[in-house]
Amino acid sequence: MAVIDCHHHVWWLNKFPHTFPPSWGTTLNRDFTPDDLRPELKVAGIDGTILVQSLDKWDETPHYLDVAEENDFIRAVVGWVPLADPSECAKRMDEIKSSKKFVGMRHLIVYEKDPRWLLQPTVQESLERFFRGKLVFEAITNTQEQMDTVLETARRMPDLNIVMNHMGRPPLPEKGWEPWASQVVEAAKFPNISVKLSVGGDVVWRWPWNTNEIRRYSDHCLQHFGASRTMAGSNWPVVLISGGFQQVWNGIKDLISGLSAADQAQVLGEAAERIYNLARTR
Question: How many CB atoms within 10 Å of residue 180?
């Protein structure tokens, strides 16, 4: 079994400037490259990764695909295309259709002023190209209303492969439960939705990594999605605001330590291999 970290980023700030919320501090205000990540993967025993977009800008996507070709451990890329403009979206997808490592896209809907941005007719039209192309749509949400739009999209497009980022933003810092818990139950009812066992930026800047505090949230996701639809992801380097890479990855392994060996293998790589169809990226 190949161990897969299903969620990380890289960036060179002189090439693609990033602006992080002031509340996140300064940890991320430098370059983070594959050379920085490679030794961490070796120590953790991780065989491959999925590189995920960090900017809603087209130029980052072909750049990421080049980075993936230059670094064998990057098995696949989740990029960005302009969903709100169907003709431009189609054009961009045609430009990269020959790239085996392009497996899907993400849009940072968490930063859209309109919480129902995802349900715009133009966006929905573009998403139809994804299920026709057997590509993944990654959904990153911070609020109940944003998650509702993901659930509605899953209902409208049962063939669209949707990956819910970062456990759907559990209320970890607040030590809360609802409405997050009920939305996870609803999301898991859709067979076309899977979930990443990872923690997002809106949580990590408020909360120092504590594996035991995550456990009831990860257990809830595993209970409803099952191991076959749950994938381990570090969210490096964003997670460094909260904890070190080895601390985080070992924490994820601890969170699934009560599962059978077969189910642990699903979470640590087999689910990602299947959900992203990584066999086609070789």
Answer: 20
Q: Give Dmax (Cα) for the chain.
A: 48
Residue corresponding to tokens 């968490």: 110
The residue ranges of every structural domain in the chain are 4-281
The per-residue pLDDT for range 154-176, each reduced to its tens digit, is 999 999 999 999 999 999 999 99
CA dist 237 and 11 (Å) reads: 10
Nearest Cα neighbor of 243 from 205, 213, 215 is 205
pLDDT tens figures, 108-121: 999 999 999 999 99
- Closest-CA residue to 11 (of 268, 236, 248): 236
**Which CATH superfamily includes the segment(s) 4-281?**
Metal-dependent hydrolases (3.20.20.140)
> Crossing angle, helix 34-44 and helix 245-255, to 10 degrees?
40
162 and 154 in contact (C-beta within 8 Å)? yes
